[in-house]
Amino acid sequence: MMQTTDTRVPVTVLTGFLGSGKTTLLNRILTEQHGKRIAVIENEFGEVGIDHELVIGADEEVFEMNNGCICCTVRGDLIRILGNLMKRRDKFDYIMIETTGLADPGPVAQTFYMDAEIERFLRLDGIVTVVDAKHIWEHIDDKASKGGTEAKEQVAFADVILLNKTDLVAPEDLERLEARLHHMNAAAKIYRTQNAVVDMDHVLNIGGFNLDRAMEVDPKFMEPEYPFEWSGVYDLQPGAYTWVMGEGPDPAMQVALLRLSSTDEAARAALVERAVLTFSDEEHELSGNGTLTPGEMLAQLVLNASGETRFTVEIAHAGLYTLFTEHHPDEFSAALHGEHSALEAAHTREYKPDHEHDDEVTSVGITVPGDLDGDKLNRWLSQLLRTQGQDIFRMKGVLSIQGEAQRFVFQGVHMLFDGRPDRPWGHELRHNALIFIGRNLDRAQLNESFRACLA
Amino acid sequence: MSGVTRARTALSARFNERWRTEIDDYVIALAWSSDGALLAAASVSGTIRVFDGEMGSIRATFPGHTMGTNAIDWHPDGTRLASIGQDGKAIIWNAKTSERLHVLPVGAHWGERALWSPKGDLLATAAGRIVRLWNGQGEQVREFTDHASTVTDMAWKPGTDQIAVGAYGGAVIWKADKDQPVRRLTWQGSTLRLCWSRDGSILTAGQQDSSIVFWDGRKPEPSMMWGYTTKVRELAWDRFSKYLATGGSETVIVWKFGGKGPEGTKPIQLVGHQDLLTALSFQHKGNILASSAADGTVLAWLPGKQENPLDGLPGLSAVSHIVWSPDDRALAIGDDQGVVVVANFVQK
Q: CB of A100 within 8 A of CB of A109?
């Protein structure tokens, strides 16, 4: 299909736990868009009522498609209601679906691709997930409960995440939360809100499932996985210092101490890159009372069986030094001591917040220049979707296929794959950029198997 | 007339318009009274109009249901009309006096179906998972709730007091005087439409996943026919319970029952519409099948005898409903713009 104007009625799905503020957002949308005819389908009647004439209540009903694959589930209630709405002479400008906090967004999204009638008249514009900044932790970290699974899936499926009720949370907690949400879903745009106040352009008509916008999120901007969790910058004079570690969760910890040329952002970023390389080197074991020197060397600090373990740090030249540590020093009550007392780092950074949570939902971005072998790609993709389709929530990307003048754009939900040739590459460097958001994704394996599709 | 081929062979027949009118919105339901004197048409936004079958003049107008009417059904007496809608109510109207006789709470907001039993002694309503049976005085006499999901359709078994109730997971057959089901017809899939063969021996179910399933009372296992383009909501049996016409694509697929079939046989394929089918209707006492599609065409066929349509009616918008008059001499047609047409069908 050429670039034609899509006249289908857009549908936005609002997800989020009860009390997250999604009904407040819905009321805001209805108020600000009062000139438009908006139908609301509601699965949950929360503590905030909706002041609107066109609210249709429905029970969430997930249907499995008998002759399809196991993850091709759809929502029967939505097919029934949306099908009916589309028949009315008074056409709607927009449809909002507010799901319950426990809803799985997968069947909702799939409904727009598995039913000819729905596909003809409606387009899924986006999934907006409202997160209660104060209480989301309880849900996300609640591994045992169903709610935990759903909270993660709602984050994973989102095109837009509203980090709501920011006024109830300390700034540093907000940073941590945002970083964690980004880690889970690197393709979603995250907005911080209070009382769900947000620019309508950020939540409506966002084209989250539009192939033309499939690659607006470039995976190269995704935060990579760092082999260290923490770094601290110290301004040190020549002399001997002591790195003191208490007992911790592990019997050893990797560290690297690197000289920082200046405090500007570029220098810091370059140093992080060097640290990543250093951490990929062979480690050098260092026992208690051993000496750590600055330089591109990965040290494995081995702790004493019990009590404190001390390492000497020798500095020959005055300057700024950054210590990169595998785990957060707090886990070992570790600190750098001067002659008289512990030193405070001038600047610290955490790289993978809450690493200990080991989020099962993550984003994997792949960026590779060059052309793909079409046949290999087909085999890889069908194998991937067959074996991991249930765990892949969203995917999108642009591919460069050998012998094709045009870019190939795609997006998908679970095993449903939607793709087509896009504009010609022209002078642009031919490359592949794609992102998967899913559960238990193996980053290395995905990267490696994708590279094997190169021509 | 592009796309419509006139048959010049064995049988010649044609449609000509008897009358045409308009209601306020998409025609969501269309029903002839048993004597053919009245035609009721309900719009998706709620209003129900009752027309004179011969002349097309308005005989009654009912406000129907707030948020929309979903279904209507005439009592065999040809006077009482039942309707159900999105306001959680079923209403029994008197079409002759325009009275509202009974307002029945159906148990959930979205009332899907209201159907009079063959004898007319009971009205069955379906809303959510709840099926209720009401007597002529508007009193609830029974309630069936043991359904796996929202009820999508119901069908009284011809000539009996048994009703098949469809939902995700198959169908359940209930008897009007029993609290326990007569039979559970289990099927993993979402049933959208139920249709009994006229002799009551076979129950057919159109499915969301582009297939049909049927339970033949004489066979132990259900059968599935698949390969449709989309979900199948259009089902019609001929008077001999020999042909089952099905939609779910642009082509009318007709399965021939009896002998070895239809399992393992090739269906009759009637090609003529340019878009997905929207409705099918077999004559009551004749052999003519009418079909309609989203391209606005209505075609008449003689399945098993002729591959080409006998005649067609062009010029409508996406047709939503077609139904033969009780005497088979006219076809009532409703479309997505609210146009209602009654066309005489003259066989030569």
A: no
pLDDT of residue A272: 85
**What distance in Å separates residue A220's CA from the closest CA in chain B?**
40
Beta bridge partners of residue A94, listed in sequence order: A38
Question: How far is B315 from B309, CA to CA, in rounded Å?
Answer: 17
Which of B69, B62, B31 is closest to B48 using CA atoms?
A: B62
For residue A42, the chain B residues in CB contact (below 8 A) are none
The DSSP secondary-structure symbol of A304 reads P
Residue A241 in contact with residue A336, Cβ under 8 Å?
yes
ipTM of the complex: 0.87
Strands A230-236 and A347-350: antiparallel
**Which residue of A lies nearest to B229 if distances are taken between CA atoms?**
A116
Q: Is A166 helix (H, G, I), strand (E, B) or coil?
A: helix
Q: Which residues of chain B have pLDDT under 50?
A: 1-9
Task: Answer whether A15's CB lies under 8 Å from A190's CB.
Answer: no
Instruction: Look up residue B222 and give its two tokens.
Output: 């259900």
Hey, which residues 219-238 in chain B have their CB within 8 Å of chain A? 226, 229-231
Q: Record the tokens describing residue B70, joined without a space.
A: 């979903």
Spell out which residues of chain B touch residue A68, defining contact as CB-CB under 8 Å. 209
CB contact under 8 A, A89 and B209: no
Beta partners for B204? B195, B214
Q: What is the pTM of this model?
A: 0.79
Find the CB nearest B168 among A58, A67, A76. A76
* Residues A116, B231: C-beta atoms closer than 8 Å: yes
pLDDT of the residue at B8: 45
**Cα A311 from Cα A287, distance rounded (Å):** 8
Q: How far apart are CA A201 and CA A193, in angstroms?
A: 14
Predicted local confidence at residue B195, as pLDDT: 98
Q: Which positions of chain A have pLDDT values less than 70?
A: 1-4, 44-53, 66-71, 142-147, 214-225, 352-359
Residue B46: name the closest of B33, B31, B29 by CA.
B29
Q: Which positions in chain A have a beta carbon within 8 angstroms of at least one beta carbon in chain B? A: 56-59, 61, 63-68, 74, 76-77, 79-81, 84, 87-90, 115-117
Whole-number Å distance between alpha carbons of B152 and B126? 8
Q: Do B208 and A58 touch (CB under 8 A)?
A: no
The DSSP line for A27-89 is: HHHHHHTTTS-EEEEES---SS----S-EEE----EEE-TTS-TT-EEEHHHHHHHHHHTT-S
CA A65 from centroid of its chain's CA atoms? 29
Tokens read off for A442: 């193996």
- Alpha-carbon gap, residue A159 to A203, rounded angstroms: 9
b or e along A294-330 (b: 16 or more beta carbons within 10 Å of the residue's beta carbon)?
A: beebbbebebeeeeebebebebeeebbbbbbbbbbbe
The CA-atom distances, in angstroms, between A235 and each of A261, A262, A328 are 11, 11, 20
Contact (CB, 8 A) for B287 and B307:
no
Tell me how far apart the terminal alpha carbons of chain B are, to the nearest angstrom.
21
Residues of chain B with Cβ-Cβ distance to A66 below 8 Å are 187-189, 207, 209, 211
Calpha distance B26→A88 (Å, rounded) = 6
